[in-house]
Amino acid sequence: MKSKYFLLPILLILACSNRNTPQAVSEDFIYNYYQRADQAAALQLSHGLAAEKLEDEIARVREVRSPGQQMEEMPKIEYEPIGKEEEPTHVLFNYKLTITTRGTITHTRNVIINTEQIDGRWKVVNFDEY
User: Which fold, 20-129?
Assistant: First the structure.
C-alpha cells in the first residue's frame, strides 16, 4: 500500500514537467523516431518539412507495418548531444547515435534536429542524418 503513495509524487512531477522546450522536444523526437521507430508519435512533435518527411515515410511503410506497430527486435540506440546552435526562435541540435544490435555496435550516425517555436509550441521542423 505504501508503494502507491511513494510513486504518486514522482508521477506528479513527471506529469507537470515542461516538455515544451527545444531540448525536450528534440529528445522526445529521438525517443519516438529512432529508439521506438514510431513515426506517428514523432509526427505529433513535428511541423513543416519534418512533418512532410514523416508523412511520406508512414505512407511508404504502411503496407508492411500497421500504424503504432512496433518492430519485434529493436536495436539499442543511445544518443549523446555533440553540438547546439541557438537563436531566439530556432534551436539546432546535433546528436551522435550509437546503434547496437545483439550486443555489438553496428554503426554510429550523426543526427541534426532543427526545432522552431510555432504558436507558442516548440516543434521539430527538420531532421537529417549523416
Answer: Nuclear Transport Factor 2; Chain: A, (3.10.450)
Question: From first to last of its 130 residues, what are the pLDDT tens digits of the chain?
Answer: 455 555 555 555 555 578 999 999 999 999 999 999 899 999 999 999 999 999 999 999 888 766 555 656 778 899 999 999 999 999 999 999 999 988 787 889 999 999 999 999 999 999 999 9
Does pTM top 0.90 for this prediction?
no
Separation between Cα atoms, residue 33 and residue 48, nearest integer Å: 16
Short-list 15, 52, 45, CA closest to 30: 45
